[in-house]
Amino acid sequence: MMNRIAVLAVQGAFIEHEKKLDRLGVPCLELRQRSDLNRDFAGLILPGGESTVQGKLLQDLGMLNPLRERIRSGLPVLATCAGLILLAEHLCNDEHVWFGTLPVTVRRNAYGRQLGSFHTEAQFAGLGRVPMTFIRAPYVETVGSGVEILATVEDTIVAVRSGRQTGLSFHPELDSDNRIHECFLRECTAPV
Ligand code: GLN
Predict the structure, then answer these.
(1) Can you tell me which atom of ligand 1 is nearest the CA of 53?
(2) pLDDT tens, position by position, 81-120
(3) Which of 50, 53, 111, 173 to mutate to test the pocket of ligand 1 (most atoms within 8 A of CB)?
(4) Cβ burial 44-57 (10 Å sphere, 16+ → b, else e)
(5) Rg of the Cα atoms in the chain
């Protein structure tokens, strides 16, 4: 049986990722408290939600530093929306840095009020066109060295990869297309 995937479950849209994993036949483990980190998992999903709330909870629960170490040591991560904000090394419109493991600069709530939420379809590296749902989404403003750009929407960077970290502005868990999760699951079982 495939190893479990951990889903950060302190706040936000984690249920949708769990449902997606369930549909793909993959067991998941909710990370709610520090002791959950002692259980075995092969990859980590950081869901959408409110990044400031998630970051503070991670800090208060004593999970931020141990998870950062795991990510630095090569734990595969799929981060959506607020999760991308948590991974970013820099935020251009917020003073916080949470994990700070992904060498990119991210802009929070980047599409403004009018375009706060929208749905589109765009080319994704290696997958072809994929549906993309954006909800008060961030985008990547600049990438550091070694960061691969996986998708852009109207000249904004909405998906990146660096090592085993994948960061997305949008919410693949909200669409019926499974390819992004499937790709991530392959990465979780690939030898380092
Ligand atoms: N706007 C949220 C933030 O800045 C992210 C939105 C989302 O995760 N859907 O944290």
Answers:
(1) 10
(2) 999 999 999 999 999 999 999 999 999 999 876 667 999 9
(3) 50
(4) bbbbbbebbebbbb
(5) 15
Residue 69: how many other CB atoms lie within 10 Å: 11
Ligand 1 within 6 A of 168 CB?
no
At 143-160, the pLDDT tens digits run 999 999 999 999 999 999
**Residue 22: exposure state from Cβ atoms within 10 A (0-12, 13-18, ≥19):** exposed
Whole-prediction pTM: 0.96
Nearest CA to ligand 1 atom 8: 48
Mean pLDDT over residues 31-56, rounded? 97
Cβ of 136 less than 6 Å from ligand 1: yes
Residue 29 CB contacts under 8 Å (≥ 6 apart), including other chains: 4, 5, 6, 7, 36, 39, 41
Torsional class of 126: left (φ above 0), alpha (ψ -120 to 50), beta (otherwise): left
Q: What is the set of active-site residues?
A: 81, 171, 173
Regarding the beta carbon of 51 and ligand 1, being less than 6 Å apart is answered yes
Q: Is there a contact between 57 and 31 (Cβ–Cβ < 8 Å)?
A: no
> Does any ligand 1 atom lie closer than 6 A to the CB of residue 17?
no
